[in-house]
Amino acid sequence: MSTSVFVNLPVKDLKRTIAFYTALGFKFDERFTNDDAAGMIISEGHSYAMLLTHKHFKSFIKNEIADPAKVTQVLVALNYDSREAVDEIMRKAVAAGGKDAREPQDMGFMYGRAFADPDGHVWEPFWMDMSAVPAKEGA
Q1: How far apart are CA 41 and CA 53, in angstroms?
Q2: Which residue, 49, 59, 119, 123, has fewest beta-carbon neighbours within 10 Å?
């Protein structure tokens, strides 16, 4: 079975959001992009972020939209090929108007950072050396 992931995020200003993620190097699937939504390609054929205007996002839910500037509902973690790639996406995010969301975390086998996009959604770029992941006791 093949499964693709579409993470749906409400955004206040879709054009600003598209410009932000374009500056980070992300591309958009025109089939899923219009005045109400932008289909951002994270990993072609596997992972996407649907960036939806608040009005459009609200059409899918019954409760209120969480304000990511006040509460954290989800952390979107993206695995990169190296520590340098993690630092580079962070540099691009801050230069494009995002905010550094926390201090870097370095566990030796794993290195991670976090940025908040212009709406406050937290993204966690990280690198992990799978061959060095500590074995689980009793496994």
Answers
A1: 17
A2: 59
